[in-house]
Batch of 3 targets.
Target 1
Amino acid sequence: MNKSKKRSDCPVSCSLDIWGDKWSLLIIRDLMFAKECTYGDLLKSPEGIATNILASRLQALEENKLIEKSAHPDSKIKVLYRLTRKGIDLLPIMIEINLWAEKYFPLPEDRKAMLKEVKKDKAGFIKRTTKELQSYR
């Protein structure tokens, strides 16, 4: 998942080398919707990621500069994970994945509500959400 494992110059392949595994986009999803998370928060994801896999994916996402760590304001032993600008730039892709999934899968009510807002003004939604995510950095 780092630059040394690049399989080709194809943009899809290069992107998948960074976030194309089973877990990375789920971590990015959680950080997009929660804005910031601790390791424990990410472990609580409904998909049930194993702690060793989570640690590995967080390290790879940090090495590829999609996420960053910062000190937790309430605890010296905890850190907060946040998206970097590079990670925030995945927002349009995440929206498109959600729109695609809406056609083929039942969605939770909160996701339906978000997509209703997206459909009203996708560009505006992306701009507002990007600005909001950047404010947490």
Target 2
Amino acid sequence: MASTGRPPPRAPTPIYISRRTRNMLAATAFIAFAVLLWQVPSLLGFALGGAALAIVLSFPARLLSRVMPRWLAILISFVLLGVLAITAFIGVLPILLDQLGALTNAIPAIAERIDRQLPRLLERSGAAGVMPLPVNEFVENAKGELLEFIQNLAHRFLGAILPFVAGAVGAAATLFGIVFIAAYLLADARKLYQMVLHASPHRYRRDVRALWNAFSFTLSRYLGGLAISLSVQGAVSAAALYVLGVPYVFLLGAWVALTALIPYLGAWLGAVPAVLLALSISLQTAVLTGILFLLIQLAESNLLTPQLQGKALDVHPVLVFLAVVLGANLAGLAGIIFAVPVLAVLHVLLEFFRARIHVTA
């Protein structure tokens, strides 16, 4: 073989450090990373958002990659997502904004109609002996509190529109960052998997592979099932409210899908505006609307979630409730939304180590 004239590559010169030094360097890096996240919390949002989007898109990308190259499957998945987002922005968002504006303008009339329905309802409650105050006194108190609540709600809606428009540019930048991270995570998923596998001790690589697969199954099943569940609940609610004659069905359906992100409490939050609007029509419509949302909640908890998510959330409901309470106290609304996926991850870790850790004497 002819010589190229280049010297052969030299092996890297080893740098020897003690185990204590290695541990100190690792601890310092971890603390520096934690401080960085504390100072710039948006980094964590970018990472979590990108990872969540990558996990959701892994479904279509994995299916399409069976019949085409993976890079093309990923590209088509993002194109389909973009088409869906543009369709929603052009076709759905204007309807929601129109209905929001119409609802804001109609709030005084709705409050007046509800005020006419309240005495009938309260008289029946008073006849049943469940009213703590005389009916007339309770009606006056309820009227004042209801009008004040509706007026404050209208002002908050109107006051939130301007900040929403002003923050559109920042939201677009955040969305771009999330999509950017998700695209690279999808494209380099195998490289990342191989990197994690090779960084693990040889004797534990089979266990690392099992843990990776467990995480992938749990998170993809949970997020994919959640997306389908939210869409179904919003669409079914809107269609049923339309049949009942309740107005602003697109806005109410979107509200139901949004509040369904919150476990347990979200179902009741989603029902409140619809029941109030139905009460402005008639007491019978309000009762039927309440029954409707009760049936939707029963179907979601007993049919939709078990079928779509299966064993991805094989956690006792009491633990889910406690996780939501803990998340709410630690991080507010974000803590409520992320409480369940974090609990699912911790459950996977617990099952993984419980089958492998053995305590010796």
Target 3
Amino acid sequence: MAVEFVGIDPNTDRDHCPTVWADTEAQEILFQGWNPSPETQAECEASSPAHGPVPDGEGIVRIPARMIHLIREACDAVERAQLR
């Protein structure tokens, strides 16, 4: 696994905060974030009824909009790895 740290939420205390990584080998983006409330999870599941509930082993993670630049950076890292 070739995981590259991209960044953390700049508005947190650097402890228990949303984080973004890029796994350039697996071509995946990894997120650490806040668990949604049960109400938010239910709303997400209801918004796509054909999809059904979130299965075991998967989860919904809440990431603040101020981290969009880090998500773009992670996307770029994964795309660059595809070109190697």
